[in-house]
Amino acid sequence: MDLQNYTGSMDFVGINHYTSYYAYDKPKPKVPSYQEDWHAGFAYEKHGVPIGPNGFSSWLYKVPWGMYKAVTYVKERYGNPTVILTENGMDDPGNIPFSQALNDTRRVNFYSNYLTELKKAIDDGANVVGYFAWSLLDNFEWRLGYTSRFGIVYVDWKTLNRYPKMSARWFQQMIAKKGN
């Protein structure tokens, strides 16, 4: 294979960004494996202090500045390619009461804070052309099934009726502002 044939051949870099964590050096493993070969460990806290507030999923910490760092890293390390944020979101418990699910202020704050950091990266020159919130609808999550709700639209699992949450209305209003 000729590396020159592949250099610059991508259409865009897709980034799924939900959370951030600290990385640390990890000694060479005795037995090679996919994750051990990285020679890096990952932690959600440093000196006993979490990297950010925890979401419903145990792995999801709210770290908006991580969005800026991830996008800026791609810009600087890979020559500012075209970037699309292909997934970004947070979850609530799947059994959350209906009225509380619709009034999802934590999700509104999550998106507002993450998109502020994304805009800062764009203002600093990152070539970001697209963004997808995860997810439009509450759905069957591959690891958590129906015990987690990522959607900006509530889905009643018994009737399949759909109800826009506060976060859906927030997105509608933000998009209507056209780039502010």
Describe the structure concisely:
This protein has 180 residues and is an alpha/beta fold. It has five helices and eleven strands; from the N terminus they run αβββββαββααββββα.
Topology (elements, then pairings):
Elements (H helix, E strand, L loop, with lengths): L2 H4 L6 E4 L5 E4 L14 E4 L1 E2 L2 E2 L13 H14 L5 E5 L4 E2 L4 H5 L2 H19 L4 E4 L16 E2 L3 E3 L6 E3 L1 H11 L4
Parallel strand pairs: 1-6, 6-8
Antiparallel strand pairs: 2-3, 4-5, 7-9, 10-11
Helix pairs in contact: 2-4
The whole-number mean of residue pLDDT values reads: 93
Sheet with the most strands: spatial strand order: 1-6-8
Query: What's the SSE pattern?
Result: HEEEEEHEEHHEEEEH
Strand content: 15-25%
Radius of gyration: 19 Å
Class by alpha and beta content: alpha/beta
Unreliable sequence segments: none
Shape: globular
Oligomer: single chain
Count the helices. How many? 5
The helix fraction, in percent, is: 25-40%
Characterization of this structure:
This protein has 180 residues and is an alpha/beta fold. 29% of the residues lie in helices and 19% in strands. The protein contains five helices and eleven strands, in the order αβββββαββααββββα. The strands form five sheets. A three-stranded parallel sheet has the order 1-6-8, with no helix packed on it. A hairpin with a 2-residue loop joins strand 4 (45-46) and strand 5. The radius of gyration is 19 Å and the shape is globular. The termini are far apart.
